[in-house]
Amino acid sequence: MKAAPDAQRRLLDLQAVDTALAQLAHRRKTLPELAEIETVAREISALEDERVRAQVAVDDLDRDISRFEKDIEQVRLRKDRDQARLDAGGAVREIEGLQHELATLNRRQSELEDAELELMEKRESAEATFGEVKSRLAAATERREAAERRRDEALSDIAKEEEFKSSSRAPLAGDLPADLVALYDKIRLDSGLGAALFKQGRCGGCRIELYGADLARVKSASADEVVRCEECRRIMVRTAESGL
Hints:
Layout: H1 5-29, H2 32-88, H3 92-174, H4 178-191, E1 195-199, E2 202-203, H5 212-220, E3 235-238
Parallel strand pairs: 1-3
Antiparallel strand pairs: 1-2
Helix pairs in contact: 1-3, 2-3
């Protein structure tokens, strides 16, 4: 393929724009905020599970305490009835029976109240754990939201840069021969780099230095010949810096 030396030189300008666009695309995919958001999301998921378990523990204790409170209330009501009957008097055997039952109910009430107190202490600890998990969850959520804001700001900046670069690419490519741009784009899409400066006997694409017949081939090629590297197949653009 042949193309005017100036058109070949302008391929380097086109490549600079495409390289910048590729770097912006890579930057979008590798923003540190993306990894941070993913890490915090896993942390939040684990904390949500922990929060549910802590909530269940508190709810279970509340249910048990409520049951004890009902049992204690029933014992108190029964004591009140027995005490009223005892106060009313009656046969000696009935009085002795009531006194025995009252003693049993007092012991039962004491046992229930001790058990309830133990549960209330456990609930206090469980509630503290629940509160601590919620605090960690809130802090993690705030970190994720902050990272998402930074991500969105970075993506907005990248989009603006891409728009600027893309707007300069179209007229640049439009001024070049269509077949030259087609060749360049095919190579670029295959390898990421379509054209590179040939400088001091070295291909700017694969960085391999040419010797002997390969170097002679480049030196002897006419100025309008589109020369490609035998190693990486990229277009080697020759300029005054090439040292030929």
